[in-house]
């Protein structure tokens, strides 16, 4: 009805029909992007999730309508796969914890830095993000390798005689991931800090709070939205990281993504690979949802909804 | 409560002199206001008293003790910010208790003090609310309670009512006046609103370009402005250029255009010197000359505006200047735009400033 | 006193973190000037020979061309789509707006590896085998959300009354769009394009499943090279990539402020 009216725009069109025209225009504008994302991401993703419900048949890539949960039971009853999943969650949790602590410190430093230094510091912090992950990992190989920066420094100082085994360990993977994801933690925290009324920390100061107390009791709680958004981003990206564990991890540092790559590229068992993808997404989503829910519960009362 | 003194304070931002050798003493229990337009240095001065800004020269003393190097956290002040700066993630109780907790006061004493403060500002029924759940006026009272809870040496208020609408602002002004007098608080208040300053203060320091132009009681500042800036800021909008033709120690004759007025002066101004005559618009009458000793200028009415409780006339003078008159009555029918009138006033309403 | 100790330890941690962030990148650049074929740190003699080696390596050069063309193509396709989407979202008062916002950040939320696998499976199902086309589709998904975000960030800076002011002055929707709004958001669009280009050029996760033996991107050929060889030519080609992104980053920060591209939802 109203869309029929909207075809003939009159100079004194009633407000209600004008709004309908408005909506039509923005619908038309967002349509191409919706189509691209639906066709290239959502439908293919749904397809993969459905494929996980097909019986696994290496070499077969078509989706069939015979659905089964066999792949999931195979995963859940296998101590090996469960151990890999546990390792993945462990490495992602360690990375996220370290990222949160260091990210909060860095964000506070940038927040307090004089305005003219901010641009430079932001570039330093962002730089890992803008350099290919391959280059970054290669850099860590030079730092952590047997003849690398740390080992040669320690040996020339006489602290050690044999090179320490730093590369190809879980620790190396966590260091590499920390390096990659630290900027993704710093930036949302910094945004949250910038939203704080600068008088609020000063008010704490005039009431006798030290800088440390002001930081822990006033500033950080108010930066919670940024912390939470950083934690969810870093955690889910760590869960699904592939290159850093593949290049920096040891033989037993395999994460679930390593298995996924094998299923799709080496053994061509796409159905089981799809199952691993589904499990990876499900575990990430559930853990992220728990974090978000807990955050919302704690801050529901004071958060200003604007 | 303490006596607070500023001694020759200087503060610079780069090459800009924000505070220019300011000396000021706030006696214990006094309510002092820093009044001036934005950029006059009043906020910088206030932040120096609070310890949030370090002066480049000079000293801040609390009860004779030099606290210039003491941080804001250790000065024992209470501050109400323009944005209020309530802690949004804490309840009213936690906000008010914060400063007491920082002083490591025993928990039972904190609870007593918080309860007492919330009673004083009449918010005891909202103790568990968060700031976002309260009205603007209630938030204002929380900020006040939080600042007063620590029994500060001085209460510092930085344009706290700037963001409120007119009605609420007036209510808060009355409340603040009552509260500070009842508790005998030493207070330093900053505003650009002269009415607010006149109403609240025991003394006012009018600031301009980083300097204190005049420090005195509200009545002194209003009735006897010492400089042209203070006169202008306190609402003397008529400034007529003139020249002294004759003078002695107590009076002077001044020529404005073709007219000559006599007025009393405090110090001698030599004949020939250029001066400005300032007259409050509400002291200027329009219409027929009645008393013989009145001063007057002739002109014609350019504009009449109605202000509810008053009418405002702009009278153009023959020499190109104009004079404004504010009358406490509705416009008279005989006075219309374009009509020739006499603007007149009593000699004692003239304030003379060296040009 | 404790304040001072806390202040110093805070500063030490912060500087350690700056070093942590920059060290691997600096090491790559230093090693690239090494003379020896074995990677040792610090280098014993200096030379530019590995830059020559890297530029003679046909895998690197071909990979660089593929990466550049794919990144350019994806940016040019994604930009008009993204700008339109941002404009639509900005002027929309629809109750589906939050859903649309979520949809538009989905390509960032879904891990790159999963995006790559999903496209691999879907494109195999429709018998699409040409690697350049597969890469292009994947990389449009990489660039698109960033163009949308930077454009939206710029639009958010615009005073909504400007649009109404133009309308009251008799401007049509099209005139308002092209003469008022687009000129104002141009920095945001350009920032999104440049940023999308860099992310696309550097991508491994999505591309990993879309390349084939003949068509591979630079980061992936560097990665495969790393798996069997370890000479400083990798450092040289990596240094060139670092140099490229750093120059672009500096320009971007000057123009737009990088922080706004990533932070907050």
Roughly how many Å apart are the termini of chain B? 43 Å
- CATH fold field value of the largest domain in chain B: Rossmann fold
Query: CATH homologous superfamily of chain A, by name?
Result: MetI-like
- What is the overall number of helices of chain A? 14
| Percent range for β-strand residues of chain B | 25-35%
Helix/strand/pairing category of chain A: mainly alpha
Largest sheet of chain A: none
Helix content of chain B: 10-25%
Tell me the number of strands of chain B.
20
H/E topology pattern of chain A: HHHHHHHHHHHHHH
Could you write a compact summary of the structure shown?
The complex is a heterotrimer of chains A (306), B (355) and C (265). By secondary structure, chain A is mostly helical.
What does this structure look like?
The complex is a heterotrimer of chains A (about 300), B (about 350) and C (about 260). Chain A has about 300 residues and is mainly alpha-helical. Chain A has helices at about 1-5, 15-50, 70-75, 80-110, 115-130, 135-145, 150-155, 170-195, 200-205, 210-220, 225-240, 245-250, 255-265, 270-300. The longest helix of chain A has about 35 residues, at about 15-50. The two termini of chain A are about 35 Å apart. Chain B is α+β, with helices and mostly antiparallel strands and about 350 residues long. Chain B contains eight helices and 20 strands. In chain B, the strands form four sheets. Chain B has a six-stranded mixed sheet with strand order 6-7-8-3-9-10, with helices on both faces. By secondary structure, chain C is mostly helical. Chain C has helices spanning about 1-30, 50-55, 60-90, 95-110, 110-125, 130-155, 160-170, 175-200, 220-230, 235-255, 260. The two termini of chain C are about 40 Å apart. Classes of the chains: A mainly alpha (about 300), B alpha+beta (about 350), C mainly alpha (about 260). The interface between A and C is large, with 91 and 96 residues.
């Amino acid at each position: 009805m109203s869309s029929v009216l909207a075809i003939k725009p009159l100079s004194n069109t009633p407000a209600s029909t004008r709004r309908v025209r408005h909506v039509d225009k923005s619908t038309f504008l967002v349509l191409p992007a919706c189509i691209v994302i639906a066709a290239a991401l959502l439908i293919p993703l749904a397809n993969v999730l459905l494929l996980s419900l097909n019986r696994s048949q290496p070499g077969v890539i078509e989706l069939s309508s015979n659905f089964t949960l066999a792949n999931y039971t195979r995963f859940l009853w296998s101590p090996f796969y469960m151990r890999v999943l546990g390792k993945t969650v462990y490495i992602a949790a360690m990375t996220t914890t370290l990222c949160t602590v260091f990210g909060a410190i860095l964000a506070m430093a940038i927040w307090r830095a004089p305005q003219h230094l901010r641009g430079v510091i932001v570039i330093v912090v962002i730089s890992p993000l803008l350099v290919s992950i391959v280059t970054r990992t290669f850099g860590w190989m030079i730092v952590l390798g047997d003849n690398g920066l740390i080992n040669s420094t320690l040996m020339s100082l006489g602290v050690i005689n044999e090179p320490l085994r730093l590369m190809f360990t879980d620790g190396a993977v966590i260091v590499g991931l920390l390096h990659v994801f630290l900027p993704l933690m710093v930036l949302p925290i910094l945004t949250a800090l910038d939203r704080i009324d600068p008088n609020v920390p000063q008010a704490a100061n005039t009431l006798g709070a030290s800088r440390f107390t002001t930081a822990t009791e006033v500033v950080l709680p108010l930066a919670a939205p940024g912390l939470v958004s950083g934690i969810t981003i870093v955690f889910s990206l760590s869960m699904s990281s592939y290159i850093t564990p593949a290049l920096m991890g040891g033989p037993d540092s395999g994460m679930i993504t390593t298995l996924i790559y094998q299923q799709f590229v080496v053994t061509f068992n796409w159905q089981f690979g799809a199952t691993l993808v589904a499990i990876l997404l499900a575990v990430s989503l559930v853990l992220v949802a728990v974090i978000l829910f807990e955050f919302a519960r704690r801050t529901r009362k004071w958060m200003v909804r604007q | 409560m303490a006596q607070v003194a500023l001694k020759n304070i200087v503060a610079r931002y780069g090459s800009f002199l924000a505070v220019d050798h300011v000396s000021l003493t706030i006696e214990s229990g006094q309510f002092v206001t820093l009044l001036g337009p934005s950029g006059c240095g009043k906020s910088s001065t206030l932040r120096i008293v609070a310890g949030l800004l370090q002066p480049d020269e000079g000293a801040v003393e609390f009860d004779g003790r030099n606290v210039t190097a003491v941080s804001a956290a250790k000065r024992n002040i209470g501050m109400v910010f323009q944005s209020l700066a309530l802690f949004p993630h804490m309840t009213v109780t936690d906000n008010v208790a914060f400063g007491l907790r920082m002083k490591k006061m025993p928990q039972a004493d904190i609870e007593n003090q918080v309860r007492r403060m919330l009673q004083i500002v009449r918010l005891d029924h909202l103790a568990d609310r968060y700031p976002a759940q309260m009205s603007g006026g209630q938030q204002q009272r929380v900020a006040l309670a939080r600042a007063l809870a620590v029994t500060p040496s001085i209460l510092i208020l930085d344009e706290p009512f700037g963001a409120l609408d007119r009605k609420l602002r007036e209510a808060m002004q009355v409340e603040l006046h009552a509260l500070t007098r009842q508790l005998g608080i030493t207070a330093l208040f900053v505003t650009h609103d002269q009415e607010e300053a006149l109403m609240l203060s025991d003394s006012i320091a009018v600031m301009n370009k980083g300097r204190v132009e005049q420090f005195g009681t509200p009545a002194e500042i209003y009735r006897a402005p010492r400089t042209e800036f203070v006169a202008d800021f306190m609402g003397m909008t008529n400034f007529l250029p003139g020249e002294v033709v004759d003078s002695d120690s107590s009076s002077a004759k001044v020529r404005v255009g073709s007219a000559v007025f006599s007025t009393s002066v405090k110090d001698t101004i030599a004949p020939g010197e250029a001066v400005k005559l300032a007259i409050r618009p509400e002291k200027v009458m329009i219409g027929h000359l009645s008393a013989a000793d009145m001063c007057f200028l002739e002109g014609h009415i350019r504009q009449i505006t109605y202000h509810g409780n008053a009418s405002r006339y702009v009278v153009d003078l023959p020499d190109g200047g104009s004079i404004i008159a504010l009358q406490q009555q509705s416009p008279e029918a005989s006075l219309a735009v374009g009509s020739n009138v006499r603007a007149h006033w009593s000699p004692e309403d003239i304030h003379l400033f060296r040009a | 006193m404790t304040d001072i100790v806390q202040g110093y330890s805070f500063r030490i941690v912060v500087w350690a973190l700056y070093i942590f962030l920059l060290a691997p990148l600096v090491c790559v650049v230093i090693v690239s000037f090494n003379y020896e074929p074995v990677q040792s740190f610090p280098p014993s003699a200096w030379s530019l020979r590995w830059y020559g080696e890297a530029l003679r390596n046909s895998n690197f050069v071909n990979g660089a061309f593929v990466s550049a063309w794919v990144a350019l193509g994806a940016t040019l396709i994604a930009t008009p789509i993204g700008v339109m989407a941002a404009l639509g979202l900005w002027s929309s008062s629809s109750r589906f707006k939050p859903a649309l916002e979520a949809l538009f950040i989905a390509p960032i939320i879904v891990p790159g590896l999963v995006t790559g696998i999903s496209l691999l499976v879907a494109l195999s199902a429709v018998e699409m085998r040409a690697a350049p086309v597969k890469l292009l589709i994947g990389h449009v998904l990489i660039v698109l959300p960033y163009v949308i975000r930077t454009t939206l960030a710029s639009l958010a800076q615009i005073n909504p009354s400007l649009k109404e002011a133009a309308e009251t002055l008799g401007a049509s929707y099209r005139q308002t769009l092209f003469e008022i709004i687009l000129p104002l958001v141009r920095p945001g669009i350009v920032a999104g394009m440049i940023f999308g280009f860099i992310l696309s050029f550097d991508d491994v996760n999505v591309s990993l499943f879309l390349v084939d033996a003949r068509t591979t991107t630079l980061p992936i050929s560097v990665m495969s090279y790393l798996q069997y060889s370890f000479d400083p030519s990798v450092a040289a080609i990596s240094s060139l990539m670092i140099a490229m992104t750093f120059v672009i980053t500096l320009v971007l920060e000057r123009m737009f402020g990088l922080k706004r591209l990533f932070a907050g939802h």
